[in-house]
Amino acid sequence: MQHAQMEDRERDQPPHLPEPPLAERVGKQFLQQLDNKLQLTPDQHEKIEKIIADGQERNHEIWTNAAPKMRKVMQEVNQEIRAELKPEQQEKFEKLVRRYAPHHGTNAPPFFPRTNAPGD
Predict the structure, then answer these.
(1) Would 19 be classed as within a structural domain?
(2) Considering the domain boundaries, does residue 29 fall inside one?
(3) SS (H, E, C) the chain
(4) Position 105 pLDDT exceeds 50
């Protein structure tokens, strides 16, 4: 495949989005803080741990449903930006975009920096 065709294909790929930030670790840290500050009983600890896990599961479902829409918006934003740029600016823009999403050939715009995505 020619280089230009490959770039076009990469550019049209939707960008990956980050998983909700460190959900599991944050949940464990939150529970630990509750334990430390509130001196939870073992029964309270167990019940609150389940409440947090259930909430994370519900949030994951919401995130999974919203992520494709967010990817589409981010892709549209990049296309709109490209349309405003001169050809030499477009080349520089592509380099900037690749810098923010180097591992996936994605096109997350500079104001949406890449972080770990599901399946990374």
Answers:
(1) no
(2) yes
(3) CCHHHHHHHHHCCCCCCCCCCCHHHHHHHHHHHHHHHHCCCHHHHHHHHHHHHHHHHHHHHHHHHHHHHHHHHHHHHHHHHHHHCCHHHHHHHHHHHHHHCCCCCCCCCCCCCCCCCCCC
(4) no
